[in-house]
Amino acid sequence: MLLMKLLVTGGTGYVGSFTVDLLANQGHQITIFDNLEYGHKQAVSYQVVKGDLKNRTEIESLFKKHKFDAVFHFASYIAPGESMKLPGKYFQNNILGGLNLLEAMVKSDVKKMIFSSTAAVYGHPKKLPISEDDPKKPINVYGESKLNFEKILAWYDKIYGVKSISLRYFNAAGASLDGHKGEDHNPETHIIPQACFAALGKLKNFELHGNNYPTKDGTCIRDYINVIDLADAHVKALDYLFDKNQSDAFNLGTGYGHSNWEVIKMVKDISGIDFQVRITKPRPGDPAELYTSNSKAKKTLGWNPLHSDLNTIIKTAWKWHKSHPDGF
Q1: Residue 48: how many CB atoms within 10 A of its CB?
Q2: Which tens digit of pLDDT belongs to each residue from 276-286?
Q3: Whether CATH 3.40.50.1820 fits 5-172+224-252
Q4: Per-residue pLDDT at 47
Q5: Of 14, 142, 169, 291, which one is the catalytic site residue?
Q6: What is 115-146 written as a DSSP string?
Q7: H or E stretch including 113?
Q8: pTM above 0.90, yes or no
């Protein structure tokens, strides 16, 4: 295995920090560039350079000091709801910040990027499971910003030869198997940590958004993927990029979905706590079902999500939240 010097933007965040751990365990040299707005320095034990991609001078200065072999780009805003209230915030950070990074890469002749993208690029799917070739029609600014950056990457490949892999996550979830590291967002909007908060008594009103969808139990169905498996996919994508030297995109999920009620029931079962659930109105734009085919990632990257059964995801999440009720 070729050992490399890697730049990881947003490396103190949820998926970024797990990926950093896996890369470092393989012997790669890691430099993290992060503004620490939403990340946690305590999540990593590696060098963190504090800086903001929206400041072109800061990222160019870093490239002048270091010669990187490849870049992992995680530094994005990720809340779809907020993106519809603050579109400028998302376009500036997710597109302008990414452009500044790409320009610095081109100036320094760095030609490899692994990009943290999202299933939100698809919007409302016309068929299930979703495949990589399905239409891209985002229904929020967050998804649009990620899709725009994927398109920018394609042009930088054509013009400058910058090769990239875009990894489109479905629902990242779970924690390390021993529960020592996990999800810590503020504010937290994801159902699994919110259900854990309710079980811990930290959340007074657990709200279930809608129970009249055309699904088996009336609640939304989503494809949950363990953050451990997501990190593994990034490492395999890096190997593929250096082996094949061609750009591509992959959906990362399990190939099936679980309903909100299934998630809530399992959190109750694993925690042993029967918390109250309040039914509220459906959120605007929430599709009834979203899950992906992962056959391309399995076949091409040799990736297999080994820890993404719902029981493992929730057991690890519960261990993390129970032992770290206030996060990092």
Answers
A1: 20
A2: 999 999 988 78
A3: no
A4: 84
A5: 142
A6: EEEEGGGSBS-SSSSB-TTS--B-SSHHHHHH
A7: strand 112-118
A8: yes
